Amino acid sequence: MIDPSVKKPVYWVFAEQRQGRLHDAGLELVGAAAAIAGQTSGSVTAVLLGQDVGGLAEDLVCHGADRVLAVDDPRLALYRLLPYASVLKRLCLREDPDAFLFGATSLGVELAPRVAAMLNTGLSAHCIDLKADEKGRLLQVVPGWGGGVLATIRCEKGRPSMATVMPGVFQKKRTEGRQGEVVTVPAGDDIDLAGPRILKIEMQEPKGIPLEGADVVVAGGWGIGNAEDWKLIEELADLLCGAVGATRPPVDEGWAAEDRMIGQSGRIVKPRVYIGVGISGTMHHVVGMDGSEYVIAVNKDEKAAIFETADLAVVGDFRKILPLLIREIRAKHARECRIKDEEGRRNNG
Amino acid sequence: MKRIVVCVKPVPDPKEWHKLSLNPVTKTLVREGIASVINPLDRHALEAALALKDATGAEVVLVSMAPPGARTLLMEALAMGADRACLLSDRAFAGSDSLATARILAAGVRRIGPFDVVLCGNSTLDGSTAQVPSQVAEFLGIPNVMHVEFLECDPAGSLRLVQAIEHGKVHLEAEPPILLSVTKQVNKPRFCSFLELLKAEKKDIAVWTNADLALDGSQIGLAGSPTAMADLFVRQKRRSGTRVTGEPEIVVQALLNKLHQLGTI
Q1: What is the CATH number of the domain that holds A144?
Q2: DSSP assignment, residue B189?
Q3: Which domains are present in chain B?
Q4: A82 interaction partners in chain B (CB closer than 8 Å)
């Protein structure tokens, strides 16, 4: 029960955008904060920094923000740490929110600690769950020690209570016609413009089906052993219209791109079907996938920890299993194509 | 460049993490008998500092907040080529969260004296909050950049940096003083020879307590940490599935049936 004499909690979410596109992390978090606000009679404010970003406010409202606090300034057009941090500090001091959430993106993990240090307040990193206590205060669940241990963190001194949250932990959900207020405030004269100059930003189009929101994920681990055999993972993912995932070693070895990493320092995925091949199942990885609906694990080591997280545990050598599986699926597709072809011919003739 | 400071942290050897256990009464981790190693990314930070030293002749100073036993690991880092080390060690530092840790490290860096660059690993293996770099920079009042995967000093003394972001890279130009935290892509750390290890024994490791740093007791350790652990629990295993084993034909058939049932093929 919420004590009615207590001020209603106000939860802030940093709405990250680059080049006028909102990052999913912010959209996921306004939704998560709205769910908590629903239990605590609180409200959600999305904080949006940039230039000509007003058009993004509606999307934030539809995803769960009650209010959008927009700072529109050419000096904030491109993200730079100190201008962004100094503006957020001033907004926090002026409005005194109860909590402030950031996506644990490359931008969020650089910006949030700097703001927390400016405000002398507590910040918890890479949360995998958020809750509220009976007073509406935020409780943050963080993985530690490779994810084997979970800790609930509370900010006991300082305001606001801050957290970075792993992208993908919460699902974004748009509700058409949701109403909210949009407030635009100036960046202020005390904006700190110090820091490195941006010479160039190079963006690469991500290759393949993204992990974000994938229905099927086929992930490989250290057990795959080499770049040549890694192609089996990609082939199976392709056949199942799924996204390729990886543990840390395949990314370090260069078999998979950085954006493929699932786990504590990568992404959290919750596909309908997850297939893990040659993955030992360290907690570091398991943290990122055990919210999947159905888990299939293939490993030749019958004692592999991944089997404790699997619905279907396949003990065997992937080098024998995957090629055969791929062949069988192709054969099935070919049969279905033939049947469709024949049907088509019959209908035309 | 005159001086580069490198932050170094001893972490429990990840190869021995399975030995970690949770004391159910005190809710603290039992880490006795587990060897420490230098946090792997900190070796990359040190290598980056040594490359700058090779190019500019700067002095490289290590700073570490750790128990006195960390001397051995600092010796190893000195053998890689650092000039001297400062070990910040005091019981009053125990229980510090990232904010209090950053405050202590910043005080240590300030006591070392004027510097051009502070380098650290982007995150540590044990806590892996990756929060300390930005917070040390804030307490030092200097800019910082995370996820640095390339750095180079031009003759005029400016730094060229490449920062990794999602699906891209940001090229930056920065002036010292600045704090940079690096990823493992930045370089390949050098090894040190036995001879260098012997030479390192002659290098200076200063041990500073809070008497030297003179931080207010309310700003460090548990008292200076805004975050508190409300609960600590071991992750529950959530599934106990069906097991299939045997000839490839048999397991593949089981997989096909399941994938069909799930509607994925």
Answers
A1: 3.40.50.620
A2: P
A3: 3-219 (3.40.50.620)
A4: 143
Chain A interface, mutation test: which of B166, B229, B261, most A Cβ atoms within 10 Å?
B166
Cβ atoms within 10 Å, residue B25: 6
**Helices within chain A (DSSP H only):** 24-40, 57-62, 81-95, 106-119, 227-239, 248-253, 283-289, 318-348
Q: What's the structural domain count of chain A?
A: 2
For residue A271, give its domain range.
Answer: 216-345
Tell me the count of A-B CB pairs closer than 8 A.
241
Residue A211 domain flag: no
pTM of the model: 0.91
**Looking at the structure, do residues A180 and A250 belong to the same domain, yes or no?**
no
> A4 lies in a domain?
no
Q: Pick from A185, A203, A236: which residue ends a domain?
A: A185
What is Dmax (Cα atoms) for chain A? 79
Domain membership flag for residue A39: yes
Q: Measured between alpha carbons, how far is A69 from A94 in angstroms, rounded to an integer?
A: 12
Min distance B194 CA to chain A CA atoms (Å)? 29
Asked if B190 and B200 count as a contact pair (C-beta separation under 8 A), the reply is no
For residue A199, is it within any domain?
no
- A82 in the same domain as A126: yes
Tens of pLDDT along chain A (349 residues) come to 455 556 899 999 999 999 899 999 999 999 999 999 999 999 999 999 999 999 999 999 999 999 999 999 999 999 999 999 999 999 999 999 999 999 999 999 999 999 999 999 999 999 999 999 988 899 999 987 667 778 899 999 999 999 999 999 999 999 999 999 999 999 988 999 999 999 999 998 888 899 988 999 999 999 999 999 999 999 999 999 999 999 999 998 999 998 899 998 889 999 999 999 999 998 889 989 989 999 999 999 999 999 999 999 999 999 999 999 999 999 998 888 888 888 878 877 5
